[in-house]
User: Fold this.
Amino acid sequence: MPENRWTFSPYLHVDDARAAIDWYVRALGAAVRECHEMENGKIGHAELDLHGNVLCLADCPTNAPAPQRYSDAAIGLYAVVPDVDAVFKAAVDAGATVERPLADQAYGHRNGGFIDPFGNVWYVSTPIAG
Assistant:
């Protein structure tokens, strides 16, 4: 990796990290890399492998509220996936809410958005073959 290159991983604060981990594994095919429990039983830090990407999460600390405590999420997560229809369906079938229905876009992608049960907004996209 070049010396000046940065690597970013989303870090999600959720109200129930155990349930979030379970959902991301079931709905999105993530695998748990690390999971560290605090003395109070909450998850202090977890890392998931999400198809070769790192997704970090923890139970919500008091100074960083979870998205469902806002009227809107502060960020959206964007993922280019091999089969957007399958990923979108799996997420919705597992309890995600459709934020933007799947549609072919003029810029050459098929994409849509959903809100996971923990308030995080996801946009998934696949380039349209052509």
